[in-house]
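ingest -> validate -> predict -> emit
validate: passed (alphabet ok, no gaps, 183 aa)
predict: started
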Amino acid sequence: MSPKVFATFVDILQKRFGLSDRCAVLEVGAATWTLLAIPMLAHATKVALNLRFSDPESLSKQADLVIGNGNSLSFPDESFDCVMSCSAMEHDAYFWKTAAETRRVLKKGGLFIVGVPIYRTLPTDYRYTTLTYARHGLAYNADFYRFSEQAVRDVFFEGYQAVTDEVLVRRYPNPYLVVAGRK
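emit:
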């Protein structure tokens, strides 16, 4: 996650998320540099979810760690006030299941913020691929998707009251979109 992407999540949270004393926040695909470290979430109940953690000792100081798959979350319906995911959905072969599970565990009126790489025509495109393929397509064993802006709105936010924010964080060389919506 780049500092600019992190700052975009912070900006959206500050604008759209009203904290309460009993606020619960879930990060799907949490890693060592976690969105749960955002200062305004200091007093929230924070849960970090991932298939595995590279540095669980460090991350466990900031959040409760849950090893699991976003396709089938173990939390009860409407458990969280806010769910965030950054650079994780493109690594999920069945991301639409995770999107549905995210909606299920988010409270009515809750905020979902997702950051994903998107595709756009770039000046360096060559034979229908982009510069990021060499890094992500080959190096990561599980990098499945780049999304259209429409797919982010229509699939990730299906059944939400409103999409509240769409921020194109980067255009080149790897376009990246952060979108928020209210359930």
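The first helix runs from residue 3 to 16.
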